[in-house]
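Suppose a colleague, Dr. K., hands you the sequence of a protein chain of 275 amino acids and asks what its three-dimensional shape might be. Before reaching for any lab equipment, you can write down a predicted structure in token form. Begin with the sequence itself:
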Amino acid sequence: MPTFTAPDGTQLAYRTHGDGDPVVCLPGGPADSLYLGDLGGLSAHRRLIFLDLRGTGRSAIPEDASSYRCDHLVDDVEALREHLGLPRMDLLGHSAGANLAIQYAVRYPNSVSKLALITAGTRAVGIPITGETRRELAQRRADEPWFPAAFAALEAITQGTGTDWEALNPFFYGRWDTAARKHHVSSRPSNQEAVALFGADGAFDPEATRAALGACEIPVLVLAGEFDLNSPPPAMAELAALFPGATLALQPGAGHYPWLDDADRFVAATAAFLS
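The predicted structure, expressed as tokens, is then:
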């Protein structure tokens, strides 16, 4: 697996899939980028470059734990662009990785050709997602056999009386089948310190970020999953509205990992935007 050196000396790793023009892909979590696979076959259209964020996957644990903060990770993405020799790059961020992609685009707007935000996290722009929004969305899955236990856990968590987050897992997939269960295990972050410090105090400045996005001239895709409890469609619509001309795509029947729920539909929408 190829590596490069971050500005603070930390050795970072990345992996590639496919051929053609590159797309740099930023995982959520922060977790090992392997959970992204090859994004449902998007590698048949573009060369995908998956960064393992510091302290995850094959990337080294940094000496300074404060460097796990999202705004500091922007420097790692820029170091990867320089390492790859790309004057400009297409950038894709999933979940929490979308926060990083957004912050990179704000700091280095001339280095981004296109920006794809897949079931995006919204902390960088300060879009709140209420418990009521999640409850209303969750109730659309009432016919699923796992729903009663999962919804009871959601109710308890929303009310501040429960902590069974594992019971919510089915809500993040369009189908809670064997493939989804296997994927869930592989997507779990293993570095809890990196997770905890990703959004530490000072990591985000939503007001400044929103102002910058209002003048953003980069083509943007915001892709939402119809049933995604983590990044509900109304929040994704609000995120898209922050950009002057973003494209909002809603993938029917999908959860938080749309390339797993319907690879063909996901690839068609994403490849068309990136082409």
